[in-house]
Design brief:
alpha/beta, single chain, about 30% helix, about 550 residues, GMP Synthetase, Chain A, domain 3, Rossmann fold
Length: about 550
């Protein structure tokens, strides 16, 4: 990107941030206090003080234990940071956060940033062996966790010990808690750390072991401005953040909401009914979800916008896994033109966003590149392919990750980073994701992308969703297997599934194996764990 283009994007980004309320014409003392906090602790550690200076006693967070104001967030994180410094935490030390969506996540995140720590966000689905491996690989010295993980953490050595974020009432002697620090610590900001905090977000691990992705703090207005240029978030709204905050989607949107002075509503576990009730009670203006959450909401309330409070909803911000044409149509019919579908990854950050207009025209697309982001479709030789041709998706921006913590990185061509996906552009520059590069199935010399079969089956009236993948075959090298979730009361058979594919796609795309499941295995961000589907379990087709 040229210097002129970068300057233009920064200028437009600043205007969008101003229009949204991320920055404003505040009193000089508030501006000085906010800028001082950013200089002391960086963008992440300084956010609570900046927001408190601007929004003070406005409610910042509502969780299962009640509301907290912006002043509360600042004071609590100061107290925790003070306690951790006393306990020996030093700049650069690794702090692991194994915490669900509640106030303790913000306490730990902001306090660690104020201490200049290396912050590692841990997947709340990790089992004991995975936790042990990640703690060792990422050099975690201190761990913050909810009580539910105590048994899984048994025996894991930690130089600076463990702190309980969500302490259950029936575990009175489980060890020190963040609330102990909040009650005993000072509310004054700690001294500025000798080095800036860093953030490690783990990859989803859908196809292997999760890896740490290092991300620097964003600078300038272009990043937030690019998002706000496409999605109409506005200050002092109410954001229901259902996506887990250890993941980039939930984290980024929760932090953006706090920066806007909006109230963030969170709970430890997603519940479709509780989410709908909360949307009405709190008059939610933005909902942050992964696709499977929308699916569950529609199962219990096919026409949710009939509820009076839901009419305040202006944005459904969805990402984390493929939304898909069928689900997109159902959500748009149920909620109206409020769906914004983001495409990105832990490594490349955000790449494209589909607006309601994009999705009305092409519900299967993931939209157009965000301002300041370059997206190209390349062939195997690194050359751009013609419009409409499927190739490898490469992304360039100022927010892509700095590499994996094991020293590895993603492939880069001409300054653009591989997303690992295959896709194509249409004539309106809308991007379509056709599948993962490593999902490509080659059976008897014929190539096929599972996503095409999955999308076709998802549109069948008797099928909720499906996952397709290649499994080893002695004759053809690979054969196609599909795992299908039927709608309640449906009696569609294996032959019925095959016939539907045969009627709509080429014959070589008809699955040899069909297995019916009650649900597909997923990680907390909604991605299907295809490695958890047993390739030996399908019954052979005829």
């Amino acid at each position: 990107m040229s210097a002129l283009s970068h300057t233009r994007d920064e200028a437009i980004g600043a205007v969008r941030c101003l229009q949204a309320g991320l920055i404003g014409f505040d009193r000089p003392d508030k501006v000085i206090a906010g800028l001082a906090a950013i200089r002391r602790f960086g963008a992440l550690g300084g956010l609570p003080a900046l927001a408190a200076a601007r929004h003070a006693d406005r409610v910042a967070v509502i969780d299962e234990r009640g509301p907290l104001t912006f002043n509360d967030l600042e004071r609590r994180s100061n107290a925790v940071a003070d306690g951790w410094r006393t306990a020996g935490l030093r700049p650069g030390d690794g702090v692991g956060i194994l915490v669900r969506n509640h106030r303790g996540f913000f306490d730990a995140l902001f306090a660690a940033a104020k201490c200049g720590a290396r912050i590692v966000l841990l997947n709340t689905d990790f089992a004991g062996p995975q936790l042990r491996d990640v703690v060792a690989a990422e050099g975690i010295a201190m761990l913050v966790h909810d009580d539910e993980y105590t048994v899984a953490l048994t025996g894991i050595p930690l130089r600076l010990g463990r702190w309980r974020a969500w302490a259950d009432a029936d575990v009175p002697d489980g060890g020190p808690t963040l609330e102990d620090l909040v009650a005993a610590g000072t509310t004054w900001p700690p001294p500025p750390p000798s080095r800036a905090a860093s953030l490690v977000i783990l990859t989803s691990g859908t196809t292997g072991t999760p890896r740490g992705a290092v991300r620097d703090e964003p600078r300038g207005f272009g990043i937030a401005g690019g998002l706000l240029d496409r999605v109409p978030f506005r200050g002092r709204g109410v954001t229901e953040c259902c996506a887990p905050m250890f993941h980039a989607l939930g984290l980024a949107q929760a932090l953006l909401a706090l920066g806007l002075g909006s109230t963030v509503v969170i709970r430890r576990r997603f519940d479709a009914r509780a989410t709908l009730d909360s949307m009405v009670r709190h008059r939610v203006t933005a909902l942050v979800v992964v696709p499977v959450m929308l699916q569950k909401i529609l199962e219990i309330a096919p026409e949710p916008r009939q509820a009076p409070g839901v009419r305040d909803l202006r944005i459904i911000f969805v990402a984390g896994s493929q939304l898909g044409e069928a689900l997109c149509r159902r959500v748009s019919d149920a909620f109206g033109p409020v769906v914004y579908n983001l495409y990105g990854s832990t490594e490349v950050a955000y790449a494209t966003i589909a607006t309601p207009d994009d999705l009305m025209a092409e519900p299967g697309c993931v939209g157009r590149p965000v301002r300041g982001v370059t997206v190209k479709i390349l062939d195997g030789e690194g050359r751009e392919v013609p419009t409409g041709t499927t190739g490898r998706v490469f992304v360039g921006s100022g927010v892509q990750f700095q590499g994996y913590t094991d020293g590895d990185t993603k492939e880069v061509v001409g300054g653009l980073m591989s997303s690992g996906d295959l896709g194509h552009f249409d004539h309106r520059r809308r991007l379509f994701i056709d599948g993962r590069e490593d999902d490509l199935v080659v059976s008897g010399g014929e190539k096929m992308l599972p996503s095409e079969i999955e999308e076709l089956l998802a549109r069948h009236p008797d099928i909720v969703e499906a996952a397709a993948l290649g499994v080893p075959d002695d004759t053809f090298g690979q054969r196609l297997a599909v795992y299908v979730v039927r709608r309640p009361g449906s009696a569609i058979s294996e032959d019925g599934v095959r016939q539907h594919v045969r009627d709509n796609l080429a014959r070589f795309k008809v699955p040899r194996d069909v297995v019916f499941l009650d649900e597909l295995p997923r990680n907390p961000t909604g991605k299907v764990l295809k490695r958890a589907l047993d390739p030996a379990s399908p019954a052979r087709g005829q």
